[in-house]
Amino acid sequence: MAQIYGKTFSYPDGSGYVMIYKQAHSTYDSGPEKKKKERDDLFELSEEERDEENAGRSARRSKKAVRDYVACNTFTHFVTLTFRDEQSGKDDYRLKVLTNWLRYMKKKHGKFNYVVIPERHKDGRLHFHGAVDLTEFELEKAYNKETGKPIIRHGNHVRDIIEWQKNNGWGSAEIIRDQKKTANYMTKYITKDFETTVSKHKKKYWCSKGLNKPVQKSLRVLPQFSRPADWENDFVIIYNIDDMNSIL
């Protein structure tokens, strides 16, 4: 019975990461039996512990998906979408506005790449960040309304997303120079507390259909690393790799 020590995930630019299981899996340690064991393990916890464990799993899945999508696809801009003060602050309203806007933009411009996540402002209201391909969108250079000076971030002139601002608050767009940094910035908000940003059983991120994913391979030989892991929890250890060819 073969042992699986983890997985590798390769991005289009040749980088990626290695996920090593703290307990190796057999090739048969999957499917219904594995899921049943996970459920049994959860039932041994208290209700509060189960909720915390489920929130942690949900956050890890969301973080991995967002990072992988941003790293594996083409996006032109990092966007921030806000709402006017007079607009409703209710979550359901803002989520519906976002969903309808994305649907309308697809109808208007055709298929475009996007990954969008929610963030809760200090006042408790939702706004959104995302990596989006705005090639076909209507953009204008953004200026400070009080000073009239251009709004510059990271050396780039910020753009207004006119098609968002017509009916909502400020929609800003910054050119993406480094997709990995963009992915890291977006996922830093996704922690186990992310479950409370959007209500339980609600979407935690929005993405266009058909996005590329990293190439996955099972690890049948345990690699050795002479440096500390980039991240770990009770189940896996992760090493970020600049050149996946160096270990494959």
From TrEMBL:
<dbReference type="InterPro" id="IPR056906">
    <property type="entry name" value="ORF2/G2P_dom"/>
</dbReference>
<feature type="domain" description="Replication-associated protein ORF2/G2P">
    <location>
        <begin position="77"/>
        <end position="193"/>
    </location>
</feature>
<feature type="region of interest" description="Disordered">
    <location>
        <begin position="28"/>
        <end position="60"/>
    </location>
</feature>
<protein>
    <recommendedName>
        <fullName>Replication-associated protein ORF2/G2P domain-containing protein</fullName>
    </recommendedName>
</protein>
<feature type="compositionally biased region" description="Basic and acidic residues">
    <location>
        <begin position="31"/>
        <end position="42"/>
    </location>
</feature>
<feature type="compositionally biased region" description="Acidic residues">
    <location>
        <begin position="43"/>
        <end position="52"/>
    </location>
</feature>
<dbReference type="Pfam" id="PF23343">
    <property type="entry name" value="REP_ORF2-G2P"/>
</dbReference>
